[in-house]
Amino acid sequence: MIVRTFDGLQALTTPQPTWSNSSQNSLHLYGLHQAYFDIFRTQPNVRICVEFLARNVAHVAPQVFRRVSDTDRVRLVDHDLATWLGSPNPATTRFRLFEALMTDLGIYDCAYWLKVRHLDRDGRDAIGLVRLPPEEMTVKGGLLPTEFVWTANGRERRFAPSEIVHFAGYRLGISPLETLRRILAEEQAAGDHREGFWRNAARHEGVIERELGDPTAKWTKEQKNDWREQWQARHTGSASGQVALLEPGWTFKAESFSAKDSEYTAGGKLRREVCAAVYQIPQPFVGILDHATFSNIKEQHKNLYQDCLGPWFEMLRQELHRQLLVECADTQDVYVEFNIDVKLAGTPDDRASSMQISIGRPWRTVNEGRALDNLPRIDDPALDTVAPQQGGPSDATAKTGKPAPMMTRPGADPGDEAELVAPVLHAARRRQQARLGKLAVSERATAFFADVDRWNRELTDDLARAGVEPEHAGHLALEANRVTLTTLLAQEAS
C-alpha cells in the first residue's frame, strides 16, 4: 500500500517475496533457495534476533531538542520533525514505523521510507512517512543514488532521492541472512529430520538381517518388493506402538542416529549463538542462559544499550538529520536524540541516588545536572554555583559533624535562632547516628536516603515543638538532612 495524499489511499496488492539471490558466490545448501523474507519467516533463531532488535529500538522514542548553550537545551515537542516521526501516516504509529524499519534492516540491511508531501491542518507543508518493501526496491546510481525504482505488480514507480529516506549498510546493504545461509541450512535440515522422525512415529531406522541357511534367503526381485511394501504399509506412518513379527532366523538391526549422537540439542544452541553473534546481541537476551547470573545480566543490560543498540541509535540519528531534518523550516541548533538514559536509569532509587551524587558534588551544579537529562535550566543564579554545603572542600561542618549554617527567618536575630535550633539539630544527629551506626559505612548513605522523608518529617516536628515557625522548620529540616546525606556520601566515596 502507498499513500500519495492523506485525502485518499491507493491500494496495491502486495506480491510474494521474489528476492532470491542467485549469484554464483552465494551458498545454496540442502535446497535452501529461499528469499530473505522466507528465511526470516521460517527460521526461529533469525526471527528471535531480528524482532528483539526491532522491539527494543522502537521502544526508545526519538526526541527533538534545540541546543541553547553547552549546558542548556530545550525539548521541541511541537517541532515539525517530532510531529512527522510521532504520527507518520494514518495507518502507522511511531512504534510500528521504527519496528518495521529495524526489521527491514535486520533482514535486508537496508530500508526505505517514502516521503508523502501534503498540507497539515494549519495549511503548512508537512511530510508523511510510509514504509516501502526492500525486496521491491531498486537503487540506481550505486553509492550515490540518482533514482529509486519501486516495482509492484509489474508496475514501476520512480522517485528522486529527495523523496525517499534511505537506510542502508555497507555497499547498499548486505543481508546478514546471506552470511548465515550455511548455518541456517543446517537448522532447516535438522528440523526436517526431526519432523520426519516424529512423522514416522519415532521408529528406529534399521535393516532386517536373515541367516544364510534360511531356505527363503534367496528371493526374486518381485518377492523383495512385495515384502517391502507389506512391511512399510504395516509399520510406517501412524502405526506407532505396533510390534513387528519376524520370520525364524530374522533379526532387526538399528542403524539410525539418536538425537544425542547427532548432537541435535548442542547444534541448535550453537546456531542460535551464531545468530546472536551476527546481530551482536548478548546471549542471555535471546534465551541462552547457561552462564547467566543476576549480576552479569545486569551488566549485559547496560552493554545492550551501549554497545549493541547504541551504534544503531547513532546511525538512525544521523540519517534522520541528513534526510528529514533538512526538510524542516526550523533547523537552527536542532538535533534528534534517542532517550537511552530512560532505559539505563535503573530503579527510581538508583537514579535518585545517582543524581544526588552527581549534583551534590562541587564539580557539578544543579543546572548542569538538568542539562544532562535534556531539561531546561532554571533561571536562578543560586543553581549555577556550587555552595559549600553541597559537599565541596570548604564544607568544614560536613567533615566535622557540626551543624550546618542555619537559614534564619526574615527579621529574626541569628543568635537567638541558633540558640533555639542548635539543641534540636544535635539531638536529631545523635538519633540518626545511633540508627545508622549499626550498618556498614558503605550502606549508611543508601539507608539514610531510603528513609529521608521520615528524617525530614521527624526533624520538622521537633523544630516546630521547639518554637520554630512550621514553614521555616521544614526548610531547616531539608537543609540539615541534605548536608547529612552529603556527608555520608563523601564518607562512602572515601
Description:
This protein has 494 residues and is of the alpha+beta class. Residues 1-33 and 389-410 have low confidence and may be disordered. It contains 17 helices and 13 strands. Strand 7 (137-140) and strand 8 form a beta hairpin. The strands form five sheets. Strands 4-3-13 form a three-stranded antiparallel β-sheet. A three-stranded antiparallel β-sheet has the order 6-5-10. Helices cover 46% and strands 15% of the residues. The chain has helices at 36-42, 44-59, 80-86, 94-108, 176-179, 181-199, 221-235, 264-278, 294-323, 341-344, 348-359, 366-372, 396-400, 414-436, 441-450, 452-465, 470-493; strands spanning 2-5, 8-10, 62-69, 72-75, 110-119, 125-132, 137-140, 147-152, 155-159, 164-168, 206-210, 250-254, 334-338.
List the helices and strands and how they pair.
Elements: E1 2-5, E2 8-10, H1 36-42, H2 44-59, E3 62-69, E4 72-75, H3 80-86, H4 94-108, E5 110-119, E6 125-132, E7 137-140, E8 147-152, E9 155-159, E10 164-168, H5 176-179, H6 181-199, E11 206-210, H7 221-235, E12 250-254, H8 264-278, H9 294-323, E13 334-338, H10 341-344, H11 348-359, H12 366-372, H13 396-400, H14 414-436, H15 441-450, H16 452-465, H17 470-493
Antiparallel strand pairs: 1-2, 3-4, 3-13, 5-6, 5-10, 7-8, 8-9, 11-12
Helix pairs in contact: 1-2, 2-4, 6-8, 14-16, 15-17, 16-17
